[in-house]
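Posting this for the archive.
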Amino acid sequence: MGAYLLNVHVTAEVVSRVEQLIAQLGFLARAQSGRFQTYRRGSEAVSLQTESLGEGISILLVSNSTDLLEALPDLSPPAPWQVFPNIDASGLGSLQGSLDYWWQYYWWPYWQSLTQKQRNEWLQDPTYPEAWREYVQLQEAFAGNDTESPA
């Protein structure tokens, strides 16, 4: 059986839910290699690595357990202002450093996966900071038809 790899950025609450799910499904910790913790249940395994990035946590998860994969909670990334609360979106030009990394590898692929209707709803949600809605809209305009990067 093949394995699946997930590389996502989530909140600490979601990481806790993933760890609880691993235990609930009967996976037992067997080995730690570097920053990976590996759990086994019969012929199934799951390896999990977590690392802080901004105010969220990156999860690298490798598993051959379809039970686990089907039961995972929503793995959408947190909103930009939640991950980088000290960044003023109205002053952003080009992205650099950890914000650029997060944007390219977590936020933008997520954004591109949304339907146009979902994007419009996000951009029009008045509970989201206006500066961030405008910045995302600007990045989308720069991207044009390029679905690979925010330009």
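The chain has a mean pLDDT of 90. Helices lie at 12-24, 66-71, 80-83, 97-113, 116-124, 130-143.
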